[in-house]
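Sample intake sheet
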Amino acid sequence: MITRRALMAATPALAFATSAARAQAPVIRIGALQDASGPYSYLGGAGSVACARLAIEEMAAQHGLNVELLTADHQNKPDIGSAIVRQWLDNGVDALLEFNNSAIALAVNELVRDRDRVMLANNVGSATLSGAACTPNMTHWTFDTAMLARVMGNALYQTGGTSWYFIRADYVFGKALRDDTAAIVQARGGQVVGETAVPVGTQDFASALLQAQASGAKVVALALAGQDLLNCIKQAAELGVGLASGQRLSALIIYLQDIKSLGPAAAQGLQLTESFYWDLNDRSRAFAQKVMPRTGGIPPNMGQAGAYSAVRHYLKAVASLGPAAAKASGRAAVARMKETPIQDDVLNNASIRADGRVVSDVYLFGVKTPAQSRSTWDLYNLQATLGPDQAWRPMSEGGCKLVHT
């Protein structure tokens, strides 16, 4: 049942501009649709909202824009998510942000296209968004399953990971991450020896882990996220699955907060890939310092930082076109975003391709040992930097109908 609470759970954000400019400027409305209370809420949630609000404040002050931010909890249910989006679009929302759920993002993608609004897909994994499901109204930020597969699949294969067993989430994101990674491994001559699909909210991973152990695979790959991922990693340690059994346990996607929750002692040596890390360089540290007073001192992860980058770049296009023109055509706003260089303190060497995919430098990290970690959030060692052409799926392989090859 779609409750009134779910449909109306939206809160406005402030807009910074002179009173005269605000009186004349049309209101730009951005709706952040999130998992605000479920297993992935800590990966985006309030952190993403804080980053989006910072971008709104900066761009509104700089360009005299009048901007509102709405937020709502989709509860990881496509019917609730779609109903919220329909209501928002009926009430003048111009751009949709975040999602945290591939099934919901795909469910509303064509609706956004048909209503000619803007999709700022962020903290959502399925690479289908910039592939077969691409539209001229969609941009996809920060990461996707194809990027994660290319970076992690190649890195693990190169260091001996020639046979794989997958434990994956039994929904769109988990299957996409498994399929994209398996394709990379098999293209290099590796084998997929088995898999187990588990529903969201699984508490007991023992059966899946023991099957992975019995398979003899060199890599036990976890295509999971949020609390499911953490539970699986902790139970793997209890059961001796991983290095203790001569196998490598790999989290194909894992966030900064996940590593902090596990602790350096449990996570040390784990490899992971990110498009943003708060302590990467002076720019990323400066950005984190602006956000952390709003997040209780917690640095933003790559998905949360992506909300800042997406909102900032969208509002740059709004300022360039003019708010009235941007509201009149989301397609025109996205086209202007593609024409405009991405310049912020989150992404390096970034641009938006014709298929809507935001590409940037991507980093391979290793988790520090407890002795190496200097502070609570000092968790990663940089191992490699991959440029956009190395890290992201070529447009020619995605199947996007907007791409002419």
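Comment: Residues 146-278+367-391 form a domain with the Rossmann fold fold (CATH 3.40.50.2300). Confidence is low (pLDDT under 50) at residues 1-21.
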